[in-house]
């Protein structure tokens, strides 16, 4: 893959949601994801084989943003998104899948489905998830690979979220010849991650994610049915953050030529 522009790829290139007053505290509700170049205002083009994605400058007065606009699309886009717990992956995934029609594949969701089904894999996975540790590769790798190879993912392209989380998981994808076009890393300062996690709630009826302080439920009826993920406690998120930090550099080294950083 090449990243073209009047200048060569700049490491200062960042992918960020448009800024809002709450952007440093809670996932941005704006449905557009923008590429912003700190070093120049020059539009960039990203090519992956015959597929071309153009980054256009947005008509915005307050920021030198670039909108990702697909053009000359000959094959489906493949994206991996990575970030610490509560870095905003869920929100960004919703926005990206809506915009590009990709199939969203979240390793954590696949695992939670196994846990809910009380399968053998689910029972074993839960032991690790409760400790904030990585579930063994024997369970995760095949599960993700099979989902990536399903017809909808192949036809529409995919957005893989929460995988790979170790160099061996990245190596397994490479061995299967599965390589993304772009690797997005969400970068959020650690002090706000814990607060986001502890206040995060799910509406089991609509699937909508709330935050008790920054995005509270609209009424008492919704508030009364909100649930909390079993690993969204302060104690457990600290363990999950430690696991994330132990592994993120190894994964980044595999994809460093296709990485864009997003600051949320
Ligand atoms: P978060 O990113 O907030 O930790 P996820 O829903 O992505 O939440 O993951 C929840 C848990 O599922 C993780 O703490 C880990 O135990 C397990 N898990 C998720 N993805 C993987 C993976 N790729 N490999 C191993 N375990 C995973």
Automatic annotation (TrEMBL):
CDD domains for this protein: ADK
Lineage: superkingdom: Eukaryota
GO cellular component: chloroplast
InterPro entries linked: Adenyl_kin_sub, Adenylat/UMP-CMP_kin, Adenylat_kinase_CS, P-loop_NTPase
Keywords annotated in UniProt: ATP-binding, Chloroplast, Kinase, Nucleotide-binding, Plastid, Transferase
Catalytic activity: AMP + ATP = 2 ADP
Region (Disordered): 1-24
GO molecular function annotation: AMP kinase activity; ATP binding
UniProt entry tagged with the keyword Acyltransferase: no
One Pfam match: ADK
Compartment(s) of residence: Plastid, Chloroplast
E.C. designation(s): 2.7.4.3
Coiled-coil spans in chain: none
NCBIfam families associated with the record: adk (TIGR01351)
Family per record: Belongs to the adenylate kinase family.
Subunit composition and interactions: Monomer.
Name of this chain's protein: adenylate kinase
């Amino acid at each position: 893959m090449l990243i073209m522009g009047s200048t060569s790829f700049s490491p200062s290139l960042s992918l960020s949601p448009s800024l809002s007053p709450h952007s440093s505290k809670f996932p941005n509700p704006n449905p557009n994801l923008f590429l912003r170049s700190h070093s120049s205002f020059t539009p960039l083009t990203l090519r992956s084989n015959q597929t071309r994605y153009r980054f256009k400058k947005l008509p915005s007065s307050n920021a030198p943003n670039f909108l990702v606009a697909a053009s000359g699309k000959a094959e489906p886009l493949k994206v991996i998104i990575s970030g610490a717990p509560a870095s905003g992956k869920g929100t960004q995934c919703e926005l990206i899948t809506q915009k590009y029609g990709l199939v969203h594949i979240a390793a954590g969701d696949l695992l939670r489905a196994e846990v809910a089904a009380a399968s053998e894999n689910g029972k074993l996975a839960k032991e690790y998830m409760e400790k904030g540790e990585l579930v063994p590769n024997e369970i995760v790798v095949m599960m993700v690979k099979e989902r990536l190879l399903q017809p909808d993912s192949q036809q529409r392209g995919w957005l893989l979220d929460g995988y790979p989380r170790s160099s061996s998981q990245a190596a397994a994808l490479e061995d299967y010849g599965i390589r993304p076009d772009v690797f997005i890393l969400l970068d959020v300062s650690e002090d706000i991650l814990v607060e986001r996690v502890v206040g995060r709630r799910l509406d089991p009826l609509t699937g909508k994610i709330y935050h008790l302080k920054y995005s509270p439920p609209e009424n008492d009826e919704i508030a009364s049915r909100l649930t909390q993920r079993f690993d969204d406690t302060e104690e457990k998120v600290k363990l999950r953050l430690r696991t994330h930090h132990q592994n993120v550099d190894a994964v980044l080294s595999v994809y460093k030529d296709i990485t864009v950083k997003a600051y949320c």
